């Protein structure tokens, strides 16, 4: 019985993280990437593609659209949505500015945004994972591993940010989102 309780205690924190975080899995494909073009995003309220500045969009909806657009490689569209966010210093905004710039080959600028995101929110596991993956791309495995340890220390064991970075360190292959 003790073994069972100990096992559950070790597994549940990771499961809780994975279930509660919008960043724990690949973003779902929606009409934002299947229907909308030119930086427009899908509004469930309007049942149409709208400008990211539209009043039917709040920052959480915009953020989901940014994740989806970035995952699809539509970086210019994602940047337009990021520009519509109410707080340009929000750690989620900084994380995706870092991701987009790193994906576009501006690695140092990407790292600068990740550092700002982590300074604003040290528990931003996604920024830590993306930064760690950038370190893997550059062969800086010790720095990547340091981010992996931080992710685990901050309760992220088993979640997408931890798994993606661990796999990148093990294989040398980083994710495209």
From TrEMBL:
Q: Keywords on this record?
A: Signal, TPR repeat
- Enumerate the Gene3D superfamilies for this protein: Tetratricopeptide repeat domain
Where is the signal peptide, in residue numbers? 1-18
- The TPR repeats lie at 91-124
- What name goes with this protein? Tetratricopeptide repeat-containing protein
Identify the taxonomic lineage of the organism of origin.
Answer: Bacteria, Pseudomonadati, Pseudomonadota, Alphaproteobacteria, Rhodobacterales
């Amino acid at each position: 019985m003790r073994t069972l309780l100990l096992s559950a205690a070790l597994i549940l924190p990771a499961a809780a993280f994975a279930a509660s975080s919008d960043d724990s899995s690949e973003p779902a494909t929606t009409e934002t990437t299947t229907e909308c073009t030119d930086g427009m995003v899908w509004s469930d309220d309007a049942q149409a593609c709208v400008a990211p500045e539209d009043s039917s969009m709040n920052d959480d909806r915009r953020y989901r659209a940014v994740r989806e657009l970035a995952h699809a490689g539509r970086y210019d569209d994602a940047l337009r949505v990021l520009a519509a966010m109410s707080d340009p210093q929000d750690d989620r905004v900084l994380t995706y500015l870092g991701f987009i710039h790193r994906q576009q080959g501006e690695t140092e600028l990407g790292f600068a945004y990740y550092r700002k995101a982590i300074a604003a929110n040290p528990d931003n596991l996604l920024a830590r994972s993306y930064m760690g993956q950038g370190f893997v791309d550059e062969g800086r495995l010790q720095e990547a591993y340091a981010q992996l340890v931080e992710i685990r220390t901050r309760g992220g064991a088993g979640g997408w940010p931890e798994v993606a970075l661990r796999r990148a360190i093990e294989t040398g292959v980083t994710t495209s989102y």
